[in-house]
Amino acid sequence: MADMTRPQDHPDASKLEGMQHTKQYDFAIPEQYAFKSEKGLSKRVIEKLSYYKEEPEWMLKFRLRALEIAEKKGRPKWGPDLSHLNFDEIYFYIRPQDRKGTNSWDDVPEEVRETYKRLGIPEAEQKMLAGVGAQYESEMVYHNLKEEWEKRGVIFLDVETGMKEHPELFREHFATVIPPEDNYFAAINSAVWSGGSFVYVPEGVEVDVPLQAYFLINAQSMGQFERTLIIGEPGSKFHYIEGCTAPTYNSDSFHSGVIEIIVKDNANVRYSTIQNWSHNVYNLVTQRAIVHAGASMGWLDGNLGSKTTMKYPSCYLVGERAHGEVLSIAFATDGQHQDAGAKMIHAAPHTTSSVVSKSISKGTGRSSYRGLVQIHEGATGARSNVECDALLLDEHAKTDTYPYIEINEKTAHVGHEATVSKLNDEQIFYLMSRGLGEAEAMALIVRGFLDPIAKELPLEYAVELNRLIELEMEGSVG
Amino acid sequence: MATLVDNTALGADALEALITRLGDPAWLAEERRAALRTYDATPFPTARDELWRYTQLERFAIDALDLVERPVDATVPERISMRITDSDAEGVMVLKGGDVVHADKRITEAGVVFTDLRTAVREHEDLVRKHLYGVVSAGHGKYAALNAAFWANGTFLYVPKDVEVELPLGAFTTGDRGGLSNGRTLIVVERNAKVTFLDEYTSEPFDDRLVNTGATEIVLGDGAKLRYVSLQNWSRNVVQLNTIRAHIGRDARLESLTVSLGGDAARAQVEVRMDGPGSESEMLGLYFADEGQHYNQYTVQHHAADHALSDLLFKGALRDASSAVYSGVIIVDPKAQKTDAYQTNRNLLLDSESNAVSIPQLEIKANDVKCSHGSTTGPVPEDQRFYLMSRGLPPEVAEHVLVTGFLYEVMSRVTLPKVAEYVERVVQAKLGVPGVREKL
């Protein structure tokens, strides 16, 4: 919340406030890299990358095949403008100086800790949350997993270590949810992936404290291609949280992750992410879960940062009574295009899904909901409901809704609703009559609009979300 | 996925022959030639085109079809004579294979022109020239370009300013031979004028496949009012592709209804552009596909001016391995503040061999607007069926009642009792309600 006592009549009040935040967030820490690949994407870069990572041969073959697929596929012809995304200007692999993960906070590089400090994150999370997997650049450098989980057989590692220490488990599941053929950016990721998490929760194990990894991008024009693989064995229950915050850079940066989740019978998995990439990042991510019988998958997807986002978390409901859920928040300010949404594929009887999307467009920002609900023949009694609400804060703000609904089963019930509205003048007037400044009033209404989603988040994240919303709302008056 | 191939018969020679046969004035001949160039330069739609993604393209193929030049005979089909005696329309014209085979234009209001388009080109050349191609041009896609070049005849309706035409007018388009036919409707309603017009497409079954393209251009002046009904109940050997598009002036109101019941496959593009502040557009649609029929409805509500209202409701039922696509978009331009725009699509799936696709879209570039859309697809509600059965109705009768009731929500908003009755009868015939004929 902005300072309640700040003089409203001072013309530069909001600007000053904004500058303080800018100082806090717009920073870049000097780079210290052991290895930096050449710019651009080629067979040579992939071979080098694979060599440095000491990978098994099947993985190198997989990467090279993915590159071929990407070249054949070409970029998608729909959706946001990607014409300024130039691969020749991007580093596809960078490895931090400290290669191996550590398990003590003191061993985390000073730069990373400083980044956390500036974001105001570490204190609460260190104490509250058990495992902090921080990804600095393309590899996990810090891992702290509670001993008791290890005893119960939970694996929470960076994906490279996961591949080395659990080769069979890894290979059995890797790229089974999102093969490189799936889409262009999944193919790019498959070719150059680096970093990400490997999570395995054994049968019947419930993890009470969220597993979380904090991602950062650093180094100018560097691509980040994390690959996360999450396996929930039958009856397991856990929550994985990923957050992204990146400092601002001059040239366009590119992030294209692939998140694969396998939710086996009666398991319950939640994946939450709030991305706040700096406003020059292309954030093009494929997130998908295969949900088996009686299992439940929930995605919470917050998109606040980046220049352009294309992200449609999906659930393939393949087992009877599987359930999928997506809660999506998009906040687009000047120059941003948040193209987010959800996909629900109902391929088994009595599967259910729910999508709630809340988007806010401010300044010249544009937020789009793009979604798919598909009910296959034989998915008897399937039910799906989609709700999209868009809030437009400014005259020049834009919003779109592109829901695709395909139904091949007569006993299915599918509904979609969307509304578009602007900030309610009467509500602002009322709040101002109670002594709030216009910016505070607006921020309060926006928070209320997002509340149904914010309350699904763990407390620390809800607080962080609110803080980010306030930050975005700064300077929105006048 | 099938790809469409060109019809080699549709070249410059065929066009010059048509121009000579119809005796077109030079300007029109030039327009047609330009449209043919656009047609040649426009590729056929493919499954990769977003607007055609769910369309079963092969069903709209036009290769190896000859242009229909005239009907086999000039009789009015029995189905149409029955409809004429039992229609809301008082002034009626019947077009068959491009020829006018019946005209009964009882109009008393001064200055109203209601005639076929060939005659209009001769007798009201300036009016036609001013408006033709102004709303649906050759640039509107492959089939629109085809129609712009090769249209053979159609309807021209002109209502001068301040004139209210009391009795509804109607045109029946029919055919009795296979091939490719192209018809156009041009409706111009001047300032503060008012009229109701029914465009009906129907035929007795015949052996060969007929593809009929239609282009309806609607121009509404400030304060004008038009109720427009496009109803296709072609025999099952016919495929229809229709583009209906309106430019709506200040405080003008268009009430449109698009009905698809017949044919093998039908595609209707219904588009409005809200040009004037305070303009209104009610867009209703109804479709019932059975026995493998394939329907596409594509709608655009384009708000180019402020304070306009558009309200769309498309409802459809499907059974017997049929398929339907509804895809619509509300576009609100940056300056179109105070827009009210609504869009609803509801589908009733009566068996699992059928499939329904619904894509209601919004593209909003102004902030002070009220826009919403909704889409639902589901079966006949079990509780309602149970209730009716508990009152003694057999299961199939309960289903008939519920399907008819579901579709009737659309018809209840149209104040044309005979049209509503006719649609209900065709729906019931398709459902197989005992004692109801009219099915083809």
Write the layout of secondary structure elements.
The complex is a heterodimer of chains A (478) and B (440).
Chain A: H1 13-25, E1 33-36, H2 43-52, H3 57-73, E2 94-96, H4 110-119, H5 122-128, E3 131-136, E4 139-142, H6 147-151, E5 155-158, H7 159-165, H8 167-173, H9 184-192, E6 197-201, E7 211-216, E8 223-224, E9 227-232, E10 237-245, E11 253-255, E12 258-263, E13 268-276, E14 281-291, E15 296-303, E16 308-311, E17 314-317, E18 323-332, E19 337-346, E20 352-361, E21 366-375, E22 383-392, E23 398-407, E24 413-422, H10 425-433, H11 438-454, H12 459-473
Parallel strand pairs in A: 3-7, 6-9, 7-10, 8-11, 9-12, 10-13, 11-14, 12-14, 13-15, 14-16, 14-17, 15-18, 16-19, 17-19, 18-20, 19-21, 20-22, 21-23, 22-24
Antiparallel strand pairs in A: 1-2, 3-4, 5-6
Helix pairs in contact in A: 2-3, 3-9, 7-8, 10-11, 11-12
Chain B: H1 12-22, H2 26-41, H3 78-85, E1 91-96, E2 99-104, E3 113-116, H4 117-123, H5 125-131, H6 142-150, E4 153-159, E5 169-174, E6 179-189, E7 194-202, E8 210-220, E9 225-233, E10 238-248, E11 253-260, E12 265-274, E13 280-289, E14 294-303, E15 309-318, E16 323-332, E17 340-349, E18 355-364, E19 370-378, H7 382-390, H8 395-411, H9 417-431
Parallel strand pairs in B: 1-5, 4-6, 5-7, 6-8, 7-9, 8-10, 9-11, 10-12, 11-13, 12-14, 13-15, 14-16, 15-17, 16-18, 17-19
Antiparallel strand pairs in B: 1-2, 3-4
